[in-house]
Amino acid sequence: MILKKTEHLPDSDKGTRVALVYALVAERLGIYYEHGQWPTVAQGAALCAEWLARSQRSLALPERQYLSEVSDGLARDIAAGLSREAGLYTAHELSESLSVNYLSEVGAAIMVECERALDS
Q1: How many CB atoms lie within 10 A of CB 59?
Q2: Domain coordinates of the chain in residue numbers?
Q3: Alpha-carbon distance 83 to 103, whole Å?
Q4: pLDDT of 55-71, one tens digit each?
Q5: Could you give the residue ranges of the DSSP H alpha helices within the chain?
Q6: Count of alpha carbons within 13 Å of 25, Cβ hemisphere only?
Q7: Which of 6, 42, 55, 102 is most buried (CB neighbours < 10 A)?
Q8: Averaged pLDDT, 37-63
Q9: CA quadruple 10, 5, 52, 24: dihedral positive or negative?
Q10: H or E segment to which residue 14 belongs
Q11: Among residues 24, 11, 25, 120, which one has the least CA distance to residue 75?
């Protein structure tokens, strides 16, 4: 589902990393609220590799693992502050906002948090 929508990654290195964290947060929240499980860091790193390969890009495994760890912490922090219903809505909103044609206030706020998490 999300894999199809991540083809439009920003050209900058930082932008790509923020976009990857954002997509991973969306994926993690979706899996958590639909299946009650959190993807592992290794699974997140593998997803990064798949997404990057679609645009003939790559990152070293340690970098992909770091991005996966950042997204895991952020997704868990977000989930801790949401009811199940709000979490399902947020996961859906983030997934939809991966499309460049979909504007979302929730998505924009989470994108800022993704950038902040990478900067810290």
Answers
A1: 18
A2: 2-119
A3: 23
A4: 898 899 999 999 999 99
A5: 13-35, 41-54, 61-80, 84-96, 105-119
A6: 34
A7: 6
A8: 94
A9: positive
A10: helix 13-35
A11: 25
